[in-house]
Amino acid sequence: MAAWKCLPALLLLVWVAGGISTTTTTTTCGNCKENGNYVICRHSAGGDVYEVEVLMETELLLQCKPSTTNLNLTFMEGCSFPSVEQIKVYGCPLPNASFGELFFQMGVYPENVTTFGFYDRNERDRPLEGWHLDGLEGLLTLEFVNNDFLGLPVDLFTPTPSLRRIKVVSDSFSSLPESIFFNLPDLETLNFERNRLETLPPGLFTNLTALTNVTFSHNYLSSVDPDFFSDKVNLESLDLSHNQIASLERNIFENLGALRNLSMQGNLLESLPSGVFSKLLSLEVLDLSFNVLRQLPEKAFDRLIDVKNIDLSNNSLDELPSEAFSKCESLARLSLRHNNLRKLQAEMFPRQTSLTFLDLGHNNISFTVNSAKILQEGPVSYEGNFPLNSQIRLQELLMNDNKIDFIPSAINNIFVDLKKVDLSGNEITDFSYHSLVFYQDSVILNLKNNNISYVDFHEIYDLLNEKEVKLYLEGNNLFCDCRMYLFTRIVQGQPIRKMKIMDIEVEDIEKVTCRNHDGIQQLLSQVDSTQLYCVIPDVQCIRNCSCLWRAHDSMVIIDCSFLGLQELPDLSILSKPLTKISVTLDMKNNSLYTLKGLKDPQFANLVNLTVSNNKISFINESDIPTTLKVLDVRGNELTNIPEPVLEVLNATDMILSFSGNPWDCDCDFINFLNFLHTPSRKVTDFDEITCARGNVYLHDLTEYSLCPYFMQPMVIVTLVAIGAFLLFFAVFGTVSFYKYKQGIKVWLYAHRMCLWAITEDEMDADKKFDAFISYSHKDEEFVNTVLVPGLENGDPKYRICLHYRDWVPGEYIQNQILQSVEASRRTIVVLSSNFIESVWGQLEFKAAHSQALQDGTSRIIVIVYGEIPPESELDDKLQLYISTKTYVKWGDAKFWEKLRYFMPHPPKKLNN
């Protein structure tokens, strides 16, 4: 309303795009001035301002101020908009003359107008007259919207015989003249929604042979005369929704054989006459939702072989005919939502596999009749009786808010195209990993607001794939115990046994809660999965003890504390369940005198033992199970730990607790003291262990303070032993070095140790290359891809001379061989069967051998690539060299270490 206050009496907007230049040239049009793409119209008498915006060539918009009571557009005389075909008038009163005259005053040719819309008139007392459409003989589309007309004149459409589309919406008339459309033979679409129509005259559609789409929704029709559609054989869409129709005549649709879309939604239908749809052989969409239907006649839809969508939602149906939709061969979508259905039968649904969408939500459907059988034999046994088994092409199945108490396994085993399942608001209690295995790669499964107490994932091997399931679980009664362990870790993104399973996303994870053993609710996303456990029933536990099962580490926790027991309990009752698991036994605050019996088979899986605050005074090495990882003997009567027991404990990584015992801190205690002082020893209470006398802490004691007179002979014996050992090591090391000198040097050089002992001759200081490689061209793949990269890119990096890279083109090959050998500290010969056949290779070896003899050094490194050729095929010098020198063989585990050892040793490496 604020925008209207900025305007005077009348605002006129006209869009006629492209017809006027966007320059600033000013022209006149009646009392209007054109400037760029705007036309400013000012009424000379009253000073009213009218704005005309030029935007589109064929469309004109006229909008009036609410206070405008009369249309007088004489001030626009002289304007011309000959190309305008579409006119829309908003918020204006009905003119005193015809709309044709009004348009002519604005410079529009009325006979050119094909589309006219009159919306939201501001003066409601003036009636619509039959002459208002005079002059619009070319009109094709007419829209009257929200004008509060109390009636339509019988001759209203006489001047517009070419009309094809009429839309009269949101008016106040309750009836129509029977002959109002008589002269409209080309009329195709008729929309009279949201009026106050109470009846329709039988002959309303006489002569409308082209009519295909009719809408009378949101009126007050209580019935429709059977003769109303008597000759409408071409009608394709009929919308009678949201009226007050309580019944239908059997033959009402008899002549609508071409009808494709029928909507009776939102009426008061309680029943349907038998055969009412039998002539609708072309029907594709049928909407009967939001009625009060209590039953359907037998064979109601039998003739609808082309129907694709039937909506019966929001009715009061208690049951369906036994073969209600069985002959609807093309049915793809069926909605039975919000009814009172209790049971389903397989015969009800299409015999073909056409159904892709089925909505059964908000009914009373249950499968409890077979629940006992399902619990006994498993869900697969019910597969053959599930009423939807034949609908294998279902993509969406909605069964929310029913009384279903289990998840039908057909959704996983039969429906190969299923992508969405809604089972929320039911009575489901069990949910296992089986229900997450679908054929499709991405599926939505909604299980909100059920009675699920836990998610059973004890076997998840079927989930080992790349598929995705989006899961909804809010509003269930989840109980956080050991059965929820695997599922909790999965939804929290924690690893599961190093296995990669499908992507399970709980979309409402921040709303999913579970209840712990104390009854406290907590978010599933914040549950500590390592602490999830189950209480083992008393009948399966030891008498008077309590037993728990912790899933994280497959641990049975047995609590027999504070019972006054004098011996260890008998675990044989748990022997069968304890296979491949671990046991924690808590025996604190009893009256045990010994740990005898812990090596019995019933304790074979014991890993944690707490016997604190008992009366144990001695521990035997035979009392320590090899499986034990934690031992707590605090608060007993132990005075020392025998050396055999210490040897057993030393061989383990056991966590120990010893405080609260009366330890004898004397000479016999030294071994135990040294045991406790071992840095790697895991003693949880070392700082709390004290001696029986003097309350001295053990961490303050030394061997000397425990036993002073014992130390002197011990020192002498120790020094003699150390001297003897050093002498033996020196003699043994010298002999071993001379025997294995070369191998030791190779190892030292490979590990960069004692490099000062490995010298290099200074005569090679000025040589350009570290090595020249001599090989047969048939072995160049090994040289170029393995040998050269390993030397040039390793550590250290060597400069390698290669004939194809470093030789000067055009020079004699013999000269270049000699130059390469002289410029390199080493010559590497790749000796293979191919090399023996290479003339140049033989020449290169002789040059290198000659250079080595001249320098008096070992410059040739032979790499045997493949098998060593027979001696008969080798050159004499090469044969002699192989038999007297060490060579390196490709494939040796220490090939690179040996090769680098024989290579020149860079000074910077030796100095390090």
Automatic annotation (TrEMBL):
InterPro entries: Cys-rich_flank_reg_C, Leu-rich_rpt, Leu-rich_rpt_typical-subtyp, LRR_dom_sf, TIR_dom, Toll_tir_struct_dom_sf. It is found in: Membrane. GO terms for molecular function: signaling receptor activity. Keywords: Glycoprotein, Leucine-rich repeat, Membrane, Receptor, Repeat, Signal, Transmembrane, Transmembrane helix. Residues 1-22 form the signal peptide. It comes from the Eukaryota. The keyword Membrane applies. The chain crosses the membrane at residues 714-738. GO terms for cellular component: plasma membrane. Residues 767-903 form the TIR domain. It is a single-pass type I membrane protein. Its main location: membrane. GO terms for biological process: signal transduction. Belongs to the Toll-like receptor family. This is Toll receptor 2. It comes from Macrobrachium rosenbergii. The lineage of its organism: Eukaryota, Metazoa, Ecdysozoa, Arthropoda, Crustacea. The gene is TR2.
